[in-house]
Structures are given as structure tokens and as C-alpha cells.
Amino acid sequence: MSLVRVFPSLAGYNNGRLSFLYVRRSWAKDLHHYEFGIHEATFVYLAKFYTMVLEKLGIPLGCVPCESSEDESACQDDPRWNQRRDQLIGFCGPKLNAPDRKRGKNQGHKCECNFKVPVGSGVAGYERMVNAYQFYKRAKYLRVMMVNPLHPKVPCVAMSLQCTCNQFTAADVSDQWDRVEALWDKHLRPVLGPLWGFGSDGDARRFSIQKSRMLSTNGPRFRCSWRGFVYSARVKPNGDLCDIMSQDSFHDSKKMSSAMAVASRDLAMGTRLATQYHIELVGDPSLFRPSDHGLHRRDIVRKDPMSMKTIERTLARKVDGCLESLAESMKQKEGGLRNLLSPETTARFADKEWPPEDTLGTRTWLGVIRTFLRIFFSTKDSLEKRYENCAFVVSFLRLKRQWIHADDSYELKHHAESAQCFDHVVLQCESAALKIEAFREFFATQPCFLARSGSDCCETFFSKLGGFGAIQLNRRNFNCDDALETACDLLKLVLYEFDPECPMIVKKANDSLELIMKELEENNDVPDADLTDYPSKAQCVSAGDRGLVRAQELAATLGMDNRKPRPKWWTEPWMNESTMTHEMRDADADDNIVERIVDPVFRTTVSGPEREVGEAVDEQRDVVAEEREESADGAGGSADGAGGSEPDAGAATEAAVPHCMPCRPAARKPRTRSQIARYATMEDDGDHEDAVRARHEYRDVIDSVHVVEEAQVLPPLRRVIPRRRRVDASPVM
Q1: Which of 132, 231, 395, 533 makes an SS bond possible with 214, Cβ 3.0 to 4.6 Å?
Q2: 497 and 482 in one domain?
Q3: From residue 417, how far is each of 27, 280, 421, 453, 538 by CA, in Å?
Q4: Does residue 602 or residue 203 have the better pLDDT?
Q5: Is the pTM of this model over 0.70?
Q6: What percent of the chain has a predicted confidence (pLDDT) above 70?
Q7: CB-CB neighbours of 454 under 10 Å
Q8: Has residue 17 been placed in a domain?
Q9: Burial class of residue 47 (count of CB atoms within 10 Å of its CB; 0-12, 13-18, 19+)
Q10: Higher-confidence residue: 690 or 193?
């Protein structure tokens, strides 16, 4: 792209060549330099920035409702001196030695939002730098708060940056949100519009505030027209809405997909089962050709649970057709799956019964995820249809949970998704319904753009900081100082990226993060929906009732209407909401779709961004390790004594393990190829759980054999240095 096009005001040439110094000065002109924390100067600059952007786009001022989205990302633990600010960048607060029983000894540190380490000059400046490394905590994460306008043309920019080690509480987050809301009403409300709420990606501290505020009954409330939605928004004294919180839709879909991918638990769809094993059957080349389903190998084995391409290809209509073929072949009187198998494989089933594969539960769950994504990212569904889909997803999840809770053969802890997955999806669906009705009441001339709802803009910001977006020269692993300086350039670059006269298109370098809705739409032949055609209150009530009826019909197909007369929860599935939430299990390592920290000693996995107090778990793990060593020494010394001492020591050790670190099974011993044949020929004999376990065990055995063979065949390389010829240095006589 020509620099003259990017900088239309440039006219300084040096002998026919554009002066590089002039370009640098033009770029640095009016460049805003961020400071860590929440500062009023940033809001003042953003008010001028968005005034310029909205005037270029032709959008009236004060007519774009927004969210404040936030997230953390790991960065280099590398404090640097910033010359512009004369500060040490990379610390998040002082180390406190006050004892804290909850976090362990010497764990009183808590991240401070506006923490700074000024340096100065002379001996005093040198002592400040030395004391910083000795008395201050080094940050390992970068936290960002983004201005997230709910409009397809208005850009998202950073509002606040913060160094953190992830040790802050929900009370700290609540105080920061109140401060942001006050500064927003003062500076950005007249320019952009009201701040409707805050978005995140599932962090427990933030979600607890979101849920409590949306379920509150204090003051005047704005509620949905349909009776099945229980969340509401708060009405301010000036008439603006707030506390319409949101969870990231991408993360919610990944959590739902992960719920059926664990072999140790069953995801019950009524009397049916939703399992990843059916996806593996679809990917079996002896059953279907790759062109029949479009799945890749990494999608079948779920190599990357964070990949949206894996979710997209798994939810495609072609995969649903293959699952339907499996179910239809099961219903045939003769043959069953043998009608789909190759002749060689059919010979193995000659003296066996056909393996039953009822895929209705898997198809149902994938259809619910597909409907959930269409609420936010569909280009064909109208707003009334999206409102109906919100009611359908919420009602089906609640009906399924009510049925499991009332059935003696099932338990919510073992046969349902995690409580976090359930709550996050329900909140996001009801938040979408609230936004549709809020746009109709206050901003009917603006499009209801639900695709922005959540925290995906934070992920895009982090990718640009790491060199995978607009700025390709930055390092992938950045520190806090790099992020602070690069954020200034990204803010300047947005002016050209969203300029209607000469827009600059920046695509994501990683295509696995893109979601294409072509294979997920209900009908691709219809024209694109008008996002300004809002349903009336009566239409919203009718759409909500239709969604509930769809959920009831689907639940009846799955065998959830087996109680006569039907209980009250069949027509009001939202009853006793809080009671059953406590009976559901918490998300563990198998449910996490974020980066995990693996402990090779305890063989446990802990999710970094979702811990309550950050590194407190690591510190508690160190304390447990010391206690284990002491208990092991004590058990070893009393081995000659009473035989009951070892079980007691083991029980004490298990009790000392933190609850947030679920234990994983020990590593399997590598087997030889002669032992693999027994697992390679195992087929499903009707016991689904054993078949899934055997399939995963076979895959682990194959991987372990490859590792053993590589270790034997490829010896370590050794550099051979030839010896020098000895030179006789004796003098010549």
C-alpha cells in the first residue's frame, strides 16, 4: 500500500523521495501513549478518537451501545525500563509477608491496577531498581479492557492495560467496573452510547459478578417479554440500561463440544448418549469416505480443542448426514453397520451380531451447539428467529437438567455438562434476547450486531501484539513493555483500518480462528437478514413459546416425557434454578478449553486463567509437595512397625491435595506390538463405555510404541572431533 495513500497529508519529499523522518513525525503526531491502569486521560482521548471515527462513518453520536470486554494473556516475565515514562514496566504490586491461611504462608500479595515503579536518576534511581526486584512481584500476564461497540463498522480499541500475576479477587474486579462505568458516563456516553455491560470468557471471578448483577432485583429492572428468561438488566436514573453481561460465544461452543469428548463420563440426552465416539466412527475410512463428512484427522482426535475450525467441521450438515446414516443402518433388519463396511471388514463380523449405534443423542447435542452459534453469527436468521433460538437452547438445557435431576438412574455430576458450561451458555443466550429487545426500545435505527458480544476482540488484540495481525515485526512472546508501546501504534492503525475512503483490510493469519457459517445455516438460499427489523413484544412472546415447544418436542423424542402426569417443570423448566446448579459438578481439566499448566509430579492439570487467585494454587501445590515428602519419610521410617501406618499416610496425602487440581491417572507402561493386536481388533459389543476406553487406550499404546521405537532407532548424535597431529616443538640442532 502506498504511503501517500495511508498518509494523504504527506507532501514532504527529498529529491523526489518521501522523507522517512517526515513519515515518522506524521505517525507520532497525536499518538496516544497508554499508561498501565484505568486513567481518565485515556477516556478523554478515546472520546476524541470515536468522534472522528463516527463522523467519517456517518453514524450519529450517542447511538452505539457498547460492552467492555476483558481478558488476560500470558506474556514474558521480563521487566524493562521504559525511557518515555522513566518507569520499570513489568511489576504488579508489592510482595506482602503477612500470613494468609487461605493462600498459605507469605501469600498476602494482590495485584494493583495502577501500580507504577518510577526510577529517577543517580544512586536513588539505582536503589529503586534493585528494591523493585526484591520487594515487588513480577507480572506474568497482561490484562486488557477493550471498548467493544455493538456495531459492525465501529472499531474495538484498548481502553486499559494492566500488568498482573492473576492474583486479584472478584471484589477488585467489581471496583474496577464501577470506576470504568463512572468514567464512561462522563466522557464516552455522549459520543458512543451507553455501556450496557461487561464481557469475559468464563473467568470465575468475573462470572460471579455478572450472574449476581443480572439476577438482582434491586431498583427498576428491564426484563424480556417472554416469561422463560430470568435474567434482567438494571435501569439507571438517566434511563440507560446496564448490567447486560455476556460470555464469549466461541468459548461457550467449545465448552459444549468438550462435554461429550470425555470417555470417563456420559453426557446423557434423555435415554440416549452424546459421545465423541460417534464422530470417530464417522471418521473411520472403512465406513465413510473423507469427502462424505469433510472432517480432518485433527478434528476426529480433537488435537486442538481451541480450534473453531474443528467445531465448524464437526457441526457441519455433512457430518449430521453421516450420523443419520449410522442410525438408519442400525434400524435395518439385517446387516446393520455391515452395509457400510468394506468386504474385508465385513468378513470379521460374519459370526457376530451387528454393533448397535444409536446416534440420536450425539446428533441432538451437535444440533443444539449449531443453533447456539446461529444466534450470534448467522447471516440468514432474522432477529425474531434468533429470539426463538435463544428460548430453544435455554429451555432444552433446563429440561434436560430437570429430567436428570428427577431420575433415579442419573446424576447431574456424572451425566450432565459442568455447572460452568450450563451457566455460561444460559447467560449468553438470555443476554442476546435482552439485547434484541433493548435495541428495539432504545436504538431501533441501528443494527443489532450480536457477533461482537463476548471477549473475542481481546483475543484479536493479543494476536496483533504477538505479530500475527497488522504488525508483523513484533515478537510472538512479548513482555508488558512491548505491549504498552505496541498498543499505541495499534490505536493509530485503527484510523486507517476503518477509514471508509481507503479502508485497510487486515485478515487473521491463523485461519483456524475463523468461523464460516455456510455449513451451519438452516437455509443458505434465503437472502441475508435485516438486523434492523426488530420483533414486537407480542412477537417476542410468540417466539419464546415456539422455542419452548421445540425443546419439549425434542426432549420427548429423547424419552424425557416418561412421567405421567407430566411434572410442573415440564412447562416451567426454569424453576428451582439455583438449587440444581449446586448439585452439578464443577469444571475440571477435561472441560477446560484454555491453556493448561501440567504438573509432572502430581500428574494434574490446572487452568491458568480460570484459577480464583492465580498463583496461589502453585504455592499451595508447593506446600503439598513438602507435606508429601514429610509423610513419605514418616511412612518409610515406620515400615517395620504397624502395618496400618501406610494407608493412613496415603489418606492424609490425598486429603491434602487441593480440590481445584483433579488427579489424573498414572502413565501407562509402553507395550510391544504383539500386545497391540488385541486392542486393534476390538469392536463395540454393546457396552459403549468399554469400547470408548479401548479405543483411547489403543491410541495411547500406538503413541507409546512410536516413542519407544524412535528412542531405540535414533541414537543421540555425537560430534566427532579429529585429534590434532602432535607437533614436536624441540629446537633443531
Answers
A1: 231
A2: yes
A3: 51, 20, 6, 23, 33
A4: 203
A5: yes
A6: 70
A7: 26
A8: yes
A9: middle
A10: 193
